[in-house]
């Protein structure tokens, strides 16, 4: 299965990512102009356009064989990414201040928080999505937190946000924001109880970023949280190599004993996924063996890599939109797509459709909040 992914352009794309992270200096072959177009398209598919452009600039001159037209377009796309990152970092302190007026504590999650693990020259080149913020009230009930989140968004944005199971969605100054009252979720009640209890216990280890005026999670938090988040998206919108690259840099920065993190992942039913993820990190980014959380599993890792390369960032959601206008057909399409995961994650594959039903009922109950 994995050999089907290892066509020449995909292999060169992997090597380009290894150049980006400093694991190699050049490609094993010089791509043709047509190859560079395909490499660019793969990078775009995984939201790694800016990172790969940085790597392209580091290659020996004789390997920078893409056409001037592609080079100019690639440069322009990278500049857009740099400007988008700057805009988000300008907005984050104001978002945090608005929420703090509602007497809630806030923490920056995922994208812009994880970007700070990247080397300085890559931080502005990581493609940003939305701004993710986790809000909580000490000793506050979940409904109270939701109410304060919704109230804060209404006052800052002037309209009702879109409520989901774990966050509210809104836009400010053209930038999408997800305000989380739950950091993320899995598909069974017992997984969620363990996950939320452990994530809550990590708040004491958060640190405040002075320039952004917001708390940042600890590395331990990110190692568990990002794994859970990717696993959930594996069943939903799909994951791309940008998310895997985020995990690469978080894991690369972790110098402590990995035993506790592995135990937490095992208790959440994520050990098998962690093994597959370590395989992807080793193959695509050449993460050194001593940095791996667990021993990679080749078979499940090959299947995970195949799925990542097929779907890319949010690729599954795009495929399911072919059934636009029919909720039942979208549901059937997603369930059929996810059945390929049964071999590696049987409990979650069976639980995910049931959770979708529960989520639908939950939204009907809380849409008035």
State the gist of this model.
This protein is of the alpha+beta class and 369 residues long. It is built from 17 helices and 7 strands. The strands form 2 sheets. Strands 1-2-5-4-3 form a 5-stranded mixed beta sheet. It has a two-stranded antiparallel ribbon with strand order 6-7.
- Please compute the radius of gyration using only Cα atoms: 21 Å
The separation of the N and C termini measures 47 Å
Low-confidence stretches: 1-6
Share of residues in helices: 55-70%
Number of helices: 17
Largest sheet: 5 strands, mixed
Percent in strands: 5-15%
Shape label = globular
Structure class: alpha+beta
Spatial order of the strands in the main sheet? Answer: 1-2-5-4-3
Order of helices and strands: HHHHHEHHEHEEEHEEHHHHHHHH
Q: How many β-strand stretches?
A: 7
Mean pLDDT: 87
Describe the secondary-structure layout.
Layout: H1 2-5, H2 8-20, H3 33-45, H4 49-58, H5 68-100, E1 105-109, H6 110-114, H7 120-123, E2 131-136, H8 142-157, E3 162-163, E4 167-172, E5 175-180, H9 189-201, E6 207-209, E7 214-216, H10 219-234, H11 241-252, H12 259-267, H13 271-285, H14 298-311, H15 315-320, H16 327-338, H17 346-366
Parallel strand pairs: 2-5
Antiparallel strand pairs: 1-2, 3-4, 4-5, 6-7
């Amino acid at each position: 299965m994995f050999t089907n992914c290892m066509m020449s352009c995909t292999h060169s794309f992997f090597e380009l990512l290894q150049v980006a992270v400093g694991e190699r200096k050049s490609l094993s072959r010089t791509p043709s102009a047509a190859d560079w177009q395909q490499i660019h398209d793969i990078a775009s598919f995984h939201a790694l356009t800016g990172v790969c452009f940085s790597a392209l600039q580091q290659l020996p001159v004789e390997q920078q064989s893409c056409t001037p037209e592609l080079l100019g377009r690639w440069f322009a796309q990278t500049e857009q990414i740099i400007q988008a990152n700057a805009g988000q970092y300008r907005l984050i302190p104001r978002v945090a201040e608005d929420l703090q007026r509602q007497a809630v504590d806030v923490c920056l999650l995922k994208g812009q928080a994880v970007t700070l693990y990247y080397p300085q020259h890559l931080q502005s080149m990581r493609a940003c999505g939305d701004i993710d913020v986790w809000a909580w009230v000490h000793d506050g009930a979940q409904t109270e937190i939701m109410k304060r989140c919704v109230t804060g968004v209404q006052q800052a944005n002037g309209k009702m946000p879109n409520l989901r199971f774990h966050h509210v969605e809104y836009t400010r100054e053209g930038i999408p924001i997800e305000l989380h009252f739950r950091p993320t979720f899995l598909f069974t009640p017992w997984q969620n109880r363990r996950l939320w209890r452990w994530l809550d216990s990590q708040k004491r280890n958060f640190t405040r970023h002075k320039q952004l005026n917001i708390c940042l999670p600890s590395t331990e938090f990110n190692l568990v949280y990002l794994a859970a988040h990717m696993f959930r998206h594996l069943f939903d919108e799909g994951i791309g190599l940008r998310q895997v690259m985020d995990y690469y840099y978080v894991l690369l920065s972790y110098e402590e004993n990995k035993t506790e993190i592995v135990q937490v992942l095992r208790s959440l039913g994520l050990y098998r996924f962690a093994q597959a993820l370590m395989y992807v990190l080793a193959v695509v980014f050449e993460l050194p063996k001593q940095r791996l959380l667990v021993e990679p599993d080749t078979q499940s890792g090959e299947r995970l890599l195949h799925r990542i390369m097929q779907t890319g960032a949010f690729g599954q959601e795009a495929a399911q939109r072919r059934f636009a206008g029919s909720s039942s057909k979208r549901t059937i399409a997603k369930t059929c797509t996810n059945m390929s995961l049964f071999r590696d994650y049987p409990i979650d594959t069976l639980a995910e459709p049931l959770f979708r039903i529960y989520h639908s009922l939950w939204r009907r109950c809380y849409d008035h909040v």
